[in-house]
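note to self: dont lose this again. the chain is below, predicted strucutre after it. 401 aa total, dont forget to put it in the shared folder this time
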Amino acid sequence: MFRTLIYIVACWAIAMSTPLAAQEKSAFETIARVNDSVITRFELEQRTLMLDALGTGGNTSEIALDNLINERLYAQAAKQQGVQLTQEEIEGGIDEFAARGQLERDELLSFLADKGVEELTFRAFVDAGLKWRTVVQSRFARKASVQDEEIENALNLGSSQTQLSLLISEIALPFQERGEVETRRLADELSNSIRGAGDFAAAAARYSSAPSAESEGRLEWAPANQLAPQILTQLLALDPGQVTPAIEFKDFVGIFLLRGVRTERVSNPLPVSLNYLLVNLPAGRDNDAAARDLVGKVDTCMDLRAVAEKYGEAATTETTVLESAAPNPVAGELAKLDRNEAIAFTNSGGQKSVVMLCNRIRELPDESRDGLRQALFNQRISGFGDSYLQELKGQAYIVLK
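---
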């Protein structure tokens, strides 16, 4: 009897423990392996919740898995280079992230907790990002450094630039009105069935919840750099009159019609200084051949100064002046030139002159120059980091289960 009782109790214990074990296996089973590291289902679910909470669009589960794979590679690269973070650095990283959303740390952590995101999940995300930033900067900071000449090159633009603008129409279908499943179904149906501007206008007036629905979805010309990246990449692949696939955002699905594309000239609000070298050839003789000789033999202002010396009576001057204050007719000739280009013209005294543009510089305050330097550095080191990550992925053993 006693043995029977023990057997019954043992069976009951096994039966009661089986669902919990299965649940634990389901939550913490390995779903991916990156070299000698694993990613669990719990981590994927947590990261997906975090991305949803932060408003990431698209398939957040796929994005979360890709991010976790990348972060395993970040950690492995950091370990190889001996990169370790202090607690103060991690806390600073959390504060920095919170500040981007104009939040205090406790407000951000509380917000994430309300969405089901564990604090350790967010801390792991911050830790990985900081380690990767340290790894990339330690490897590539020297290569990515920005020289003063590169700042000048970046600023050496004319007083006007070209800008790509798009003319589009939109349909916005909020999830709240029809539910996610029905909204996605309707968006796919409209995207696949709309043919041209007329169909799109009718669908926008009927279905769209955007304010533009009153004008059949039509928007005004918009600079390309003001459009969301996921919209712009789809639109640039279209011809006018074509419609994008359904594009999913946090709270709605959008469909867009490309109506037109144009390149515009836009004014540069910053003052521009011109640095130029002017050679006035001696009066009293035909200097056409001499002017052609000067223009044809020089590549820089230093060259022009040296070659002009053989014309002993020539007057050579170097001047830096605001573009708006450049004297005529020099100003008109300089407007035609890029840096280190020269041109011959007839001066106000009726004789030949040669002018070369040495530099065209936007006048920025020092702090703005520092900002430009940092932006160029960030852009360059980001490219190095992306290339290094692809190299690590190519060498890694990655298995999805």
